[in-house]
Amino acid sequence: MDLAERISTLRRVNGLSARQLAALVDVAPTTVTRIESGAVSPSFVLAQEILTVLGEPIGFTGMADIEAVAAARLALDSALDVAITPGVEAWRARWARIGLVDELGRVVASKEADLLFRAGRAARLTRRPGAVDFKAGATAYEIAGALGEAGVDYAVTGDAGANLYRSSAGEAWPVLYVEDVERAAEAAGLVRKEPGSFGMRVTLIPFGGVSERGRTMIDGVSVVARDQVVIDAYGGIDRMAEQADVLLDRRVA
């Protein structure tokens, strides 16, 4: 896939119009359309900015950009104990250009859903640093129970987390943040999936200092904050995005 096709494909996957992408990288909309058609080649700096906004920067290693999550969480809760890094500031600047956050990095009224959607797309669950996939079988709640009994710190997210806040659909993919992946896997009796295998899975993601902030207990289960559930659901698979919409009252349950 050449650069023009890559940019065009990623823009559509991210649900952005050419005008919206242009605003994110501070160029004219015609510049984006000409780049995608192959009529012009962007400079290295512009290409890197475009691909970073779309979640796959030059030199992409497969890791999600957790600083996009940090910027979004702080935009909704400035008191959250999360460091403001240069990466966080860069995301704030991008989002400020299209009116999602103000000059202080706080979410603009009525733009919460757009902000959380973009954070989720920039930090897909499948690409989270340190994430490990295990064979499907146990539900997120069964795993949570086993971890609780073993004294392993955890937090449920994804569709299982969304259902704790507002029941809307079945669980398609159990995803939990944990303090120690290996210890959690042992406590829950999980078996690793073969590298490169596809299909249903259970995923454990190590705490990273951002996503696990603001956890709460619902029905005896530790779950990440509502905003984090929405971000993760938008960055997930199957019906997760629909469940994020339900949590934000964008769709009727």
Characteristic key phrases:
253 residues; four-stranded mixed β-sheet; 6 strands; 434 Repressor (Amino-terminal Domain); single chain; Beta Polymerase, domain 2; alpha+beta
Strand content: 5-15%
Number of domains: 3
Q: How many H/I helices? A: 12
What is the CATH architecture descriptor of the largest domain?
A: 2-Layer Sandwich
Give the integer mean of the pLDDT values: 89
Strand order of the largest sheet: 1-4-3-2
Indicate the CATH class of the largest domain.
Alpha Beta
Largest sheet: 4 strands, mixed
Uncertain parts: none
- The SSE order reads HHHHHHHEHEHEHEEEHH
- The SS-based structural class is alpha+beta
Count of DSSP strands: 6
Please state the overall shape, judged from the principal axes of the Cα atoms: globular
Report on this model:
The chain is an alpha+beta fold. It has three domains: 3-53, lambda repressor-like DNA-binding domains (434 Repressor (Amino-terminal Domain)), CATH 1.10.260; 66-125, no CATH class; 127-247, Beta Polymerase, domain 2 (2-Layer Sandwich). The protein has twelve helices and six strands. β5 (216-218) and β6 (221-223) form a beta hairpin. α7 (112-122) packs across α11. The longest helix is centred in the middle third of the chain and has 12 residues, at 86-97. The model has no long low-confidence stretch (mean pLDDT 89).
